[in-house]
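Reopening this ticket.

The earlier resolution said the output was attached, but the attachment link was broken on my side. Pasting everything inline this time so it's all in one place.
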Amino acid sequence: MNTTNSLLHTALCLAAAGVPVLPLRVGKVPFGNCPACARNACGGRPNMKTPGPCTCPQPCHGWAAATTDPTVLRSRQWARAWREAAAVAYHPGGVDLTVVDLDNPAAIAWARATLPPTRTVPTTRGEHWIYRGTMPSSNAVRPGVDIKSAMQYARWLGPGEGVTATLPDAVRALTVKEPPTVRRSPQSLTVPLRGHGGECPHRTSAYLDRGISMAVQRITDARSAIHATVYRTFLAVLSTHGRCGCLTDTHVARLFTAAQAKGESPRHCTDAWANALTALGM
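Inline output:
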């Protein structure tokens, strides 16, 4: 079986299993738009959120050209692409999968220390760790690590080994971005939001103390995405306890101390607190 027939055979087998596929050129890149679709003249896929060929019969539009239709895969319009193809790719989000693309030994070591075991596929330079679940795709979420899921393609390198685990929060957190830093006067960053009047809805200090302890523990237990964890924890504390005026310098110092123990700088703690305040309109 020559290379063209071998790649097409692989694509047809995957399509029969419900996996949307497309051909890749040398360099692991998809085939570009044909002249009729250049500069998106054809209108592209609606919102580019669903796989499948556009009205043009060519394998256009990158990941969105992925299809499970054997008639399309065998069509005359796709024949030239298969003759020039160097690999088969698939759309992970189209089958409720997320690929954590680990590009070097350091990235693999990080994953083994941080992420739950799952199905693993060897690549040229590293490994693909495959999880059940879909999320936004993003490149360079940390050194040597890309996320390939919704609106993205991944090279097919075989079924791999192991049992596919559920997509963990540690992977989802890799794409969480903090809002841009908002500069505030030093006085407004030192903490508390002093009373907005009225009785504290928490009624007892035990409720607040327990909430702060849980927040500190969440930061302390974080094994990855520390920046994102600190910001989201600050956001949660402020959304629950920030408007009644019961937070004190002591409470916030506990949060900052926990964050700095995980390697965060005082400046980052201050910026994350300011961003959380802004996000909540405080």
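Reporter confirms the inline version is readable. The two ends are 66 Å apart (CA to CA). The chain is about 35% helix and 15% strand.
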